[in-house]
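Quick illustration for those who missed Monday's session on complexes.
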Amino acid sequence: MYSIIRQAHSGIAYLLLAALIVSVIYALASRKKTFTAGGRKIALTGLIFAHLQLLLGLILYFISPLGVSNFSGEAMKDRLSRLYVMEHPLTMIIAIILITIGYSRIKKQTTDRKKYNSMIIYYGIALILALAVIPWMVWP
Ligand code: HEM
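Prediction with protoporphyrin IX containing FE bound:
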């Protein structure tokens, strides 16, 4: 069970990062054009992977030996333990909140320019945050 969820979390990380990169590049390249249903679908893909990743991440946090069971003062002094116990989950949750707000703004904004800007800003910041707390020493 643990191994399957860990592998799924690792696999969806590729899909989510790819969806965020594609969204930002697409929005940057099209920002002077009309916002189409295609643009919304690209943004939706990122939202779906983000929510799936949140679900898997939360489960992992409770079943992984690197998650909540490792929470202690000692763990906070170790860089890798602190990353898994605190920095990775908290920052990723903030990134997923930004993606969610960004997608809702894409749907609600009244002008195409504002829709593209929401996609660039919210998805772009989420991408930077996610890249900052990926455990690069063990992944990919
Ligand atoms: C944008 C969302 C996220 C991305 C891109 C992401 C990415 C990753 C990656 C690439 C790994 C390393 C996997 C491996 O070693 O094979 C990992 C591990 C982990 N993630 Fe996430 N993660 C995200 C969200 C979360 C959230 C929200 C939580 C918890 C609330 C979480 C908890 C964990 C834990 C506990 C591990 C260690 C698993 C283990 O090796 O036992 N992740 N994550």
